[in-house]
């Protein structure tokens, strides 16, 4: 079968010829050859963007009772750094179970524009970055999400230079990049902020050198970026106070499969022996613990019983403990299949409220905070929700109040008044202002009596693959309307 490359050959900036990146980390023979990978169908040669979802509305008629089984997609936050990490590798990598989301599409499209050869077969992506000839990813695209900035690490390490616009992403706080910059400097990079862009190069054109660096906060993205950079640095790097999130472990596994030498992933210290080159590899993205957690919360909020797979229960202990304490029944059917029940036969009259404080893994995930807040509006008593990771992740509260939620925000803490008889929410119009906050509105809409109309779907589409279809299969009454088309999509 003819192979079609999704290769957008319009590099926005070619590397400085005085610092030719052919001097850095090149390996002539790819370990995995494209023709041996036997793709199962014709690749997609051009990605449709999700921009058209900007004007769409989600109409939910509630209350809904959910039942059945939901398949969990690959993790967005594991896929993004792994796609960036292919910039470290000579030869082709085959990444499976990549969720089809606007963020992963943007990442793939940026890599393609920089010169990578990419083939997309559904959730499987073949990617070869040997042809990359630009060290400056498209600024507009980088400004759309957080994950694009991760490329600064591999670009610097492999090509000796990177010019990056400051990243975008959900508006949930300041989200600086100081840890990234300090860490890259500790590896011998010169990093400056010029013309609103981060300009970084390896000092004296010698490439990065191993070093010791302690992160002042266990930032997930900075840990991932520095790990990628250290893999190709000369010598040993020791990173301490690093993030312990499962997504960091996935990245380390992928890089080790590519020939890197990373020890300690999942602990607060990483020891990385730099290699002169890495090869491509095959890797399957782990299931999305935040998507799985969101569906568990959907079951609890709607007092339903659903099962889901694949999930990795150890990635979700914190949420599972809280759901059990509230009175939900969790049953593990196989090593990667969980069932959650909040039907009255299992939980009795009502669920009990509980308190959460978000924190780095293994703490309560900030990415489940807004959805959990909705559950607490349906539980007995007063509960508190303390957000300690992002200072501005409460914008969903205003929107939830439109549906009748009784929540008071005081700084970064929300006081949630529950209801003795489950949900007292009623349908209304609300706007998804960020990804997880937007998803909390969908969950509230499922439990609310009447019709809920949600705008700002582009924010939600950044993180939930096939959301409408999955919810409909579980029995939710929802449709997506494009106003200019006047019919459901
Ligand atoms: N921080 C700094 N300096 C830095 C980097 C981070 O002060 O240089 C601070 C941030 O301001 C924030 C805290 O550290 O207060 C945590 O940020 P972190 O860097 O850990 O988050 P991230 O890497 O930007 C990833 C996920 C987020 C998730 C967080 C925390 C990706 C693409 N994003 O972001 O996911 O909330 O880790 O787990 O991996 C989402 O999926 O909705 C989402 C926002």
TrEMBL record:
Domain Enolpyruvate transferase: 61-468
E.C. code: 2.5.1.7
Coiled coil start-end: none
BP GO annotations: cell division; cell wall organization; regulation of cell shape; UDP-N-acetylgalactosamine biosynthetic process
Reactions catalysed according to its record: phosphoenolpyruvate + UDP-N-acetyl-alpha-D-glucosamine = UDP-N-acetyl-3-O-(1-carboxyvinyl)-alpha-D-glucosamine + phosphate
GO MF assignments: UDP-N-acetylglucosamine 1-carboxyvinyltransferase activity
Pathway: Cell wall biogenesis; peptidoglycan biosynthesis
Cited Pfam families: EPSP_synthase
Localization of this protein: Cytoplasm
InterPro entries reported for this sequence: Enolpyruvate_Tfrase_dom, Enolpyruvate_Tfrase_sf, MurA_subfamily, RNA3'P_cycl/enolpyr_Trfase_a/b, UDP_GlcNAc_COvinyl_MurA
GO CC term, one of those recorded: cytoplasm
Entry keyword set: Cell cycle, Cell division, Cell shape, Cell wall biogenesis/degradation, Cytoplasm, Peptidoglycan synthesis, Transferase
Domain of life assignment: Eukaryota
Matching PANTHER family: UDP-N-ACETYLGLUCOSAMINE 1-CARBOXYVINYLTRANSFERASE (PTHR43783:SF1)
UniProt similarity note: Belongs to the EPSP synthase family. MurA subfamily.
Protein name: UDP-N-acetylglucosamine 1-carboxyvinyltransferase
Species name: Ziziphus jujuba
Source lineage: Eukaryota, Viridiplantae, Streptophyta, Embryophyta, Tracheophyta
């Amino acid at each position: 079968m003819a192979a079609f490359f999704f290769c957008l050959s319009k590099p926005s900036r070619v590397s400085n010829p005085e610092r030719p990146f052919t001097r850095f980390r090149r390996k002539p023979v790819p370990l995995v050859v494209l023709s041996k990978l036997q793709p199962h169908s014709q690749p997609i040669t051009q990605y449709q963007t999700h921009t058209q979802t900007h004007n769409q509305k989600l109409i939910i008629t509630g209350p809904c009772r959910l039942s059945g089984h939901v398949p969990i997609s690959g993790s967005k936050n594991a896929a993004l750094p792994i796609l960036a990490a292919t910039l470290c590798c000579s030869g082709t990598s085959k990444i499976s179970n990549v969720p089809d989301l606007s963020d992963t599409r943007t990442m793939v499209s940026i890599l393609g524009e920089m010169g990578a050869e990419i083939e997309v077969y559904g959730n499987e992506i073949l990617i070869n970055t040997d042809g990359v000839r630009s060290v400056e990813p498209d600024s507009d695209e980088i400004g759309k999400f957080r994950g694009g900035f991760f490329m600064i690490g591999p670009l610097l390490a492999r090509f000796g230079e990177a010019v990056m616009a400051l990243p975008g992403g959900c508006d949930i706080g300041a989200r600086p990049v100081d840890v990234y910059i300090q860490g890259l400097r500790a590896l011998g990079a010169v990093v400056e902020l010029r013309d609103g862009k981060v300009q970084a190069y390896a000092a004296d054109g010698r490439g990065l050198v191993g070093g010791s660096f302690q992160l002042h906060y266990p930032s997930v993205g900075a840990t991932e970026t520095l790990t990628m950079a250290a893999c190709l640095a000369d010598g040993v790097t020791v990173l301490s106070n690093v993030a312990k999130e499962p997504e960091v472990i996935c990245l380390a596994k992928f890089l080790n499969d590519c020939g890197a030498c990373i020890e300690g992933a999942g602990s607060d210290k990483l020891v990385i022996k730099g290699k002169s080159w890495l090869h491509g590899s095959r890797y399957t993205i782990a299931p999305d613990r935040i998507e799985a957690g969101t569906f568990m919360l959907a079951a609890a909020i709607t007092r339903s019983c659903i099962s889901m797979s694949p999930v990795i229960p150890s990635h979700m202990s914190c949420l599972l403990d809280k759901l059990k304490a509230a009175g939900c029944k969790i049953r593990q059917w196989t090593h990667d299949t969980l069932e959650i029940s909040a039907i009255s036969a299992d939980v009795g009259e009502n669920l009990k409220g509980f308190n959460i404080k978000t924190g780095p893994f293994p703490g309560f995930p900030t990415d489940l905070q807004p959805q959990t807040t909705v559950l607490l509006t349906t539980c007995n008593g007063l509960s508190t929700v303390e957000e300690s990771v992002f200072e501005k992740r409460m914008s969903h509260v205003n929107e939830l109040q439109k549906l009748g939620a009784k929540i008071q925000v005081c700084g970064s803490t929300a006081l949630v008044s529950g209801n003795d008889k489950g949900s007292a929410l009623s349908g209304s119009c609300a706007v998804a202002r960020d990804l997880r906050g937007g998803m909390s509105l969908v969950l509230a809409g499922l439990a609310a009596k009447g019709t809920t109309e949600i705008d700002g779907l582009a924010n939600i589409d950044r993180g939930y693959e096939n959301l409408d279809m999955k919810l409909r299969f579980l029995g939710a009454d929802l449709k997506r309307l494009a106003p200019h088309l006047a019919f459901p999509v």
